Amino acid sequence: MRALIQRVTEADVAVDGQVIGQCGAGMLILVCAMPDDTEATADTLAQKIAKLRIFKDDAGKMNLSLLQSGGSALVVSQFTLAADTSRGNRPGFSGAAKPDIAHTLYRRFTDALQTLGIATETGEFGADMQVSLTNDGPVTIWIDTDA
Predict the structure, then answer these.
(1) Does 109 qualify as catalytic in the annotation?
(2) Which of 11, 34, 44, 141 gives the lowest tally of CB atoms within 10 Å of its CB?
(3) Is this model's pTM higher than 0.85 or not?
(4) Where are the domains of the chain?
(5) Active-site choice (6, 41, 55, 78)
(6) What is the pLDDT of residues 75-107, one digit of tens each?
(7) Is residue 79 annotated as part of the catalytic site, yes or no?
(8) 18 is catalytic
């Protein structure tokens, strides 16, 4: 799986002008399932992200995880993270998992974060969404479970 994580002070996602998911201080997580991913991959990614130390401690150092900081998460499906731009100017997305598998793994990832005790909201899988955020730092991190 691939994820693009942004440390945020706030974020929300809307469909047809209606906000359907939001978070305060925490993470906006754009996530993409790849063809060889499994439920174990989704669980591993959730564990990694929940423990990633990107939040400031009392000394101002990035030393706290999402779990330790008490932050929340907004998870948005983002198949375009699988974009292949190696040929021409039009990206190809055949590197993303098929929609039925991707949806299952997206839900598994979100459920795994919630099981860890992280307040989590989501976008709508497969919908045309508008995402708004205030990036804190800015801190933006790419994670690929295959790397």
Answers:
(1) no
(2) 141
(3) yes
(4) 2-133
(5) 78
(6) 999 999 999 999 989 999 999 999 999 999 999
(7) yes
(8) no
